[in-house]
Amino acid sequence: MKCGLEIHVQLETNSKLFCECKTNYQEAPANTNICPVCLNQPGAKPYPTNEKAIENALMISLMLNCKIDKNLTYFMRKHYDYPDLPSGFQRTSVPIGYEGELNGVGITEIHMEEDPGQFKPDRGIVDFNRSGIPLIEIVTEPEMYSPEEARSFLKELIRVLQYSGGARGEGTMRADVNISIEGGNRVEMKNINSIKGAYKALKFEIVRQKNLMKRGVEVKQETRAFLESQMITVGMRLKEDADDYRFIPDPDLPPMKVSDEDIAEVEETMPEAPHNKVKRFIESYNIDEESAKVLTSELDLAVAYEEIVKEIDPKFAAMWMKDELQRVLTYNKLSFEDSGIVVDDLIELFSLLQNKEITTKAGQRIIENMPNNKQTPKAIAEELGLIGIVKDDEIIEAVKKTIKENPKAIEDYNNGQKASLNFLVGQVMKLTRGKADPGETVKLIKDNIN
After folding, report:
1. Nearest alpha-carbon partner for 388 in 397, 373, 378
2. Selecting from 3.40.50.2300, 1.10.10.410, 3.40.50.150, 3.40.630.30, what CATH number does the domain 392-449 have?
3. Which has the minimum average pLDDT: 102-106, 156-160, 380-384?
4. Direct distance between the N- and C-terminal alpha carbons of the chain, in angstroms, rounded to an integer
5. Cα pseudo-dihedral 437, 439, 442, 446, rounded to 10
6. 3-state SS assignment for residue 133
7. Cα–Cα dist 141/108, whole Å
8. Which of 20, 168, 175, 241 could disulfide-pair with 192, CB 3.0 to 4.6 Å?
């Protein structure tokens, strides 16, 4: 299979692309964030293009390693007839960026568009609050060869958009997915608004096209709708070509030119792209690629790591943040930003561990109690009685007591059931309130059994 994507995401602005109406369409009552311009009333002309939208589109293009078109940039009218498009055409710009790359997939072009309204066919109503909100459209080359590759690309793209601060992320994403199997025609799937949806649509469509080809039926070049509730695609219409839209330059909007100064200004203020941050983390902190990817999965997490390594060994901090912190965040379904965990608390926890004031097991229990907890790690440790590491003779005493009280586990261990060793370690940990070193405990248990 070959797959290419056309991803539409709203740009982060306070006002619409060609008027001053607000963009908080989800919070406002239906048809209240509107004016004669975004409803295309007779005599109403568009305002000059929203400068913040242009800046954000330029920044995202640069973060996706695109070349910037320094010729005249202008908007065209893309004609089609649909109830959520009051003008009968959609304003869409010529490409701002082109020939970019992300995750080994080529970015063909990036351009801006205005969002249409929201049409609900089942109820026959249209809400125009969304009409005119600035969009960015990212068009890729057909260089994804499995649903898994497409999913991986979309995850990385959403991460770039979140880092940029210039787009609204997966919540506003709408993707058109183009797919073909060798020997068949290209099919475009619409109505996909999540990464999971794109993955499921591709899985279904591969099976559908393969089954048609097995029966000797031609795969039609068409547009299909993805019904997420049923996880299937259904035919909508034969696929349009560019000629069907009758593109013409919009006579109401003046052309614009992106200068070298504009590009330099954006480059100076834009954040580092996550894929570039991964490379830098690997080189600067000598950590592995997997750790670097986890640490850059959220911008706030990456910023926290760079603050922490000013005082803590980078490899030690990376190991704990990748494994234990991420485990706790995933279990609680929290992002790092929403967890309430601050840099100073992580530095204090890692210092307690490195100074051997607490055991690894104690550290795991402490970090589990840190989300949205105003207590410091040391205060949590004191409350749970986890401060301090017990002396060797106390561990030996606990080991002997455990062996004496658990003859069945000893018998199982001697019969080759190695899992019983974990049970015995757990019993020693209970007796020492988690203050025994796990590695030393395993060695002592084995020695005493022998």
Report:
1. 378
2. 1.10.10.410
3. 380-384
4. 59
5. -120
6. coil
7. 6
8. 175
